[in-house]
Amino acid sequence: MDQQDDDAFISSLFYKTSNWLPNTPWLSVDEFNTKISQLYPALTQQLKEGYERLWDYLTMEEFRKMVEELENESHSIQKYPELALDATVRRDSNLSRQETDYLVKRKRFQKTAFARLIGRDPSEIDERDLPVIGIASSGGGYRAMIGLTGYLNAFKQTGVWDCSLYLSGISGSCWAMSLYYNPFIIRADTERLREHLKEKCQVHWANMSNFLHTLTLSPEHTKAMIRGIIQRGQRAHLVDVFGALMGSRLFNNPEMSTGLSSQQKWLENGQEPMPIYCVVRHMVENDQSDVYQWFEFTPYDMGCEELEAWIPTWAFGRRFQENKNMERLPEQSLDIMNGTFGSAFAASLVHFYQEIRSFLPKGALEKMDQVVKQYELSMSNIHPISPSSFPNPFGTEDLQLMDAGMDNNIPFYPLLRQGRDVDIILAVDLSADIQTAPHFKRAESYMKRRGIEGWPKDARWPSDEMLGSCTVFEGQATGDQTRPITLIYFPFILNEAYDSQFDPQTAEFCSTWNFVYKQDQVDKVIGLAEANVNQNIEKIRKVLLEAWQRKKKQRLLLTK
Q1: What EC number is given for this enzyme (predicted)?
Q2: Pick from 249, 291, 294, 258: which is nearest to 276 by CA?
Q3: What is the pTM of this model?
Q4: Is 243 helix (H, G, I), strand (E, B) or coil?
Q5: Domain extents for the chain?
Q6: C-alpha to C-alpha distances, 277 to 41, 138, 175, 189, nearest whole angstrom
Q7: What would the pLDDT profile of 200-209 be if each residue is shown by its tens digit?
Q8: pLDDT of 329-381, one tens digit each?
Q9: pLDDT number for residue 382
Q10: What distance in Å separates the CA atoms of residue 215 and residue 244, rounded to the nearest whole number?
Q11: Is 97-206+254-347+383-558 CATH 2.40.440.10?
């Protein structure tokens, strides 16, 4: 079996739309192993040889020396300047000083770009009237990672990107963001990102031969791939292994071990929107209710708005006591963080059932649906694979974080944080279950719980018709609320004007569980995303123009 066949088989095990599962009787482990040996006689031998090679490498004296070097480097201030710094917990609801400084620079940068987009002279634009634009991009595995790349490229080409302040992401979108903002690989270039993904997505991240090749390429590659796990020590988790494997495939670069704070490079002059990476903690309050608590990571800080608690991003992973760090450790590596951002397999039993329901035998569905409905709350509180665990800088218990798609697969919430004051949200929905997912319902509940006004009440999928590739939902000013929130929604669905034969909601290669894309498939996904923006640029321009006019009018009225 060659590498392509190996990848195809691995991918088939994860396909949500696999055809062989519904009609195949459940097998015992021994029966399954026998069947695999019969169908893929070379695979068993390949796996055996692969793991033998891995074991031989891990037991080499050279490898042990590299582990010792990593442990020594973890105390090097020259390599990790953050080791010279102590961190304290900031307990307030304000934006960090670094973010407020960034906003000043970004708005100065935006002025000319916004004038160009709406067809006005820059002299007509007052920075105070610029609409605050945030992009919220959903999870969805490689489909989301590749799809967001297309949307970003189109936003750049049309000028929308230079008018945006924030980019929040979940799961697969976080992977695209971490690549785009990486100062050593993509360097904030969407065309370079496209070509990078066309190369990297051809091989499955779980491909053993590829992993071994990358691991043994050079001592620098070995150290980069294992640094995060070595640093995690006894806290190392299945999620961390996933992150290391994913990182070895997507980054394949000694610089993959850099942290999120290195992305400040693209913000120091306000030249790029600020990335916000989202995760959640599952809070089981009692037997009758549970809630997901949102945490955000930016190149500057991490924390939780509801807790009103924040620390520098480079200090995450340190133990804290009485709001001060008790130790100095290097920043968490990007592969460890990407594993946590995209840890959808740490889902609750209910989320697992929702993912596999479509390929269960039809005869079992009705009974299983009844069981899940009856025990939904209890099953929502059980995670067969536990989330990634870190020292909690804000409390005594460990902080268990997971893929934010467990709560809402579109990250609206960080954009609505007090002080960010977002006027317009470009919602990029790359989910698999677009028409049935409760994104809008949960967002509306969150707005009520947090006392946020101005959310568009009609933001939802209509029950009797389809939405197009771009829909505008207008928020309404109520009472003293003078800042309605406008939602520009981009569902990743069939676009007849682009390709009537390509529906990402049904195309098998677009499954959330597919981690191998051919180059033409990458182009197909990116092309659809670009078309969804390009075909609707006038609609976007109109929304931005009206928001600017409204803010300008309000400012002038207040200054009379």
Answers
A1: 3.1.1.5
A2: 294
A3: 0.86
A4: helix
A5: 97-206+254-347+383-558
A6: 42, 11, 10, 19
A7: 999 988 787 7
A8: 999 999 999 989 987 654 444 444 444 444 445 555 565 555 445 544 444 44
A9: 44
A10: 11
A11: no
